[in-house]
Amino acid sequence: MPDPEPTQNIVEIAQGDDRFEVLVDALGSAELVDALSATGPFTVFAPTDAAFEALLAATDGVDALEDISQESLTQILQYHVANGKVLSTDLMDGQTVPTLLNGNDLTIGVSGSGVTVNGANVVVADIEATNGVIHAVDQVLVPEGFVIELAPQTIAEIASGNESLSLLVAALGRVPSLLDAAGDETATLTVFAPTDDAFAALLTTLTDATGNTFASLDDVPDYVLERVLQYHILGSAKTAAELADSEETLEGSSISVDGTVLNGSVNVVADLADISASNGVVHVIDAVLVPSFILNSLNTVLEPAIFDAEGRFTTLVTAVETAELAGALTNADATLTVFAPTNDAFTAYIDASDFADASELLASDMLGNILLYHVLGATVPSSAIVAGASSAPTLYEDDDEDEVGEVVYISNNGEDGIFLNGGPQVIIPDLEEGNGVVHVIDGVLVPPMNSIAEIVVASAGADAPEFTLLLAALQTADDTDGDLVELLSGDGTFTVFAPTDAAFNAAGFADVAAVEAADPATLRAILLYHVVSGAAVFSTDLASGAVTTAGGGDVTVTVADPVTIADLNADSADATVTSVNILATNGVVHVIDQVLLPE
User: Fold this and answer.
1) What CA–CA distance (Å, rounded) separates 561 from 369?
2) How far apart, in whole angstroms, are the C-alpha atoms of residue 235 and residue 190?
3) Where does 62-163 have alpha helices with state H?
4) Cα separation of 284 and 262, whole Å?
5) Which pLDDT tens digit goes with each residue over 25-80?
6) How far, in Å, are 403, 436, 493 from residue 396 at the CA level?
7) Which of 102, 397, 467, 529 minimizes the number of CB atoms within 10 Å of its CB?
8) What distances in angstroms separate CA 374 from CA 252, 284, 302, 338, 340, one per listed residue?
9) Is pTM beyond 0.70 here?
10) Do 363 and 386 meet the contact criterion of CB atoms below 8 Å apart?
């Protein structure tokens, strides 16, 4: 009985035979599946899996099929295919068979022991297909003198295979996004790759410049390492000849290029330029490129934030860069004091503010002023801060010619700590640098924008007004010796204990009309009894005892939980301080729940 007619083509037969699994993968990689599924007919000398394994083992630099370039793989496979259907019975000893690899023939050997092709044994003959025939062979056939080219490696693979780039590989491992990009076949990058010696020199430089020990890359903060690595990568593939005089990096700033010299002193290593990768180009360099933002920060008040090992100041660093204040803070000739808020401090500020998130703060017109309000134009170590209450001018300048609102108020309470504007506390003092000193704080300082009078006016007009009656009293009070609204709007420094509307109600003032009907001189005396003139007394400055008011009489402060204030009227209830440290351009406001009555 004749053999049944075949129902599968050459590719389908190979796909269904576990002896040809590697061959099937190779046909897919070489994009020859469609060609060998066509009408043909073809004769295929098909290497078994064992044949491919032997080839991989014998070829330097090749561990898997993927390590062979697509062009070489395609040519090797074409060398196994002949046009026409040639059964084993049609083969003759010494016969040459033209292949699809033009100009390359196979030599057939026929003897009593079987059929060979270029010396390889046909182990299974005459596997017929709808479009030809397969003869399984025990070796992969390679044309004489043929050089198997390796598949291009990714940038990550090139670095991993170079012993002198081991620290670069370790550094990329610390920044997964960059490591992924270096290994992404679809990327197109240029990488300037520092040698291990280059990284070692960088560690020595950082140690000398900062006074801290950088024994290994592990000592380099994540933020710094990521910025440095980004500064070595271009977003497109460029050979040395294609590089422009200035190239923007993924870090955002540019490097200068003069032939094989980068940034004036970093050299491309001879014979190690233009290393082609499947996803770009590698140029090996003899030093680490450092962005000017980081380089210029060394030994300045910006250094502690950038080089913080715990990364606690990344928001501050981003804000400084966004507001373009790095130049001022890294000026070697400056003498500065920086109160540096942590990331947690910024998070707490944003949560309590109208900003939706950090990006809104960074985009705000207020950003520069907020940052300058954290900087003094003199070097003030903690030992130079006087005990008790004081103030110091900041680099923030408002539009007022009188420079009102430019000072930050400091409360030095000794062992209890140093506080600013009654709130943020210095948690790490005296990080000394070449152009000043840094004190780490746990809150964000916001420069005041309104005077005490403006704060009262704004509250009176708010959706939930609190000082409607206080404003009416200020406007109604006797102005023979000066208008009180103008007084609390202008120059000077004041502390105001501000009664709420409920406090006025409790004192017998039912509404605005009742306030306006009161004796103006009495109102003036009551209001001045709520004002301390000549000092901004924050909650961190308060101490139990008598405080002399602008009206001449004393009130008695009791510092407890809560803080209370007693007037000299025996029939009055003590006032409780319900809200503290509302900063104004001319002092501070504390909210109280009772009206204080002079004797």
Assistant:
1) 34
2) 7
3) 70-78, 155-160
4) 12
5) 999 999 999 999 999 899 999 999 999 999 999 988 888 888 898 899 999 999 99
6) 9, 17, 18
7) 102
8) 27, 42, 13, 6, 7
9) yes
10) no
Q: What does the pLDDT look like over 387-407, one tens digit per residue?
A: 999 999 999 987 655 554 489
Burial (0-12, 13-18, 19+ Cβ within 10 Å), 49: middle
DSSP 394: B
Computed on alpha carbons and rounded to an integer, the radius of gyration of the chain in Å comes to 41
* Distance from C-alpha of 11 to C-alpha of 26, rounded to nearest angstrom: 11
Q: Hey, what are 176's tokens?
A: 């997964």
Whether 90 shows a pLDDT value over 60: the answer reads yes
Give, for 413, the enclosing helix (H) or strand (E).
none
- Kindly report the three-state secondary structure assignment for every residue of 446-463: CCCCCCHHHHHHHHHCCC
Q: What's the pLDDT tens digit per position in 337-346?
A: 999 999 999 9
Helix (H) or strand (E) run with residue 5 in it: none
Give the C-alpha separation, 54 to 517, whole Å. 108
Q: Is residue 389 within a helix (H) or strand (E), and if so which, with residue range?
A: strand 388-393
Q: pLDDT tens, 420-466?
A: 999 999 999 999 999 999 999 999 999 998 999 999 999 998 999 99
Pair of tokens at residue 413: 């309470």
Distances (CA, A) of 525 to 48, 300, 516: 107, 52, 15
Supply the pLDDT for residue 599.
77
**Domains, the chain, with CATH or none:** 10-137 (2.30.180.10), 155-295 (2.30.180.10), 320-441 (2.30.180.10), 452-592 (2.30.180.10)
What's the pLDDT tens digit per position in 499-532? 999 999 999 999 999 999 999 999 999 999 999 9
pLDDT tens digits, residue range 470-499? 999 999 998 888 899 999 998 889 999 999
**Which tens digits make up the pLDDT trace of 263-274?**
999 999 989 999
pLDDT reported for residue 405: 46
- Tell which residue, 405, 410, 353, has the closest CA to residue 380: 410
The DSSP result for 267-329, as a single string, is EBPTT-S-EEETTEEEEEESS----HHHHTTTTSTTHHHHT-TT-TTHHHHHHHHHTT-HHHH
For 103, the token pair is 């100009």
Sequence-distant (6+) residues with CB within 8 A of 556 are: 545, 546, 547, 565, 566
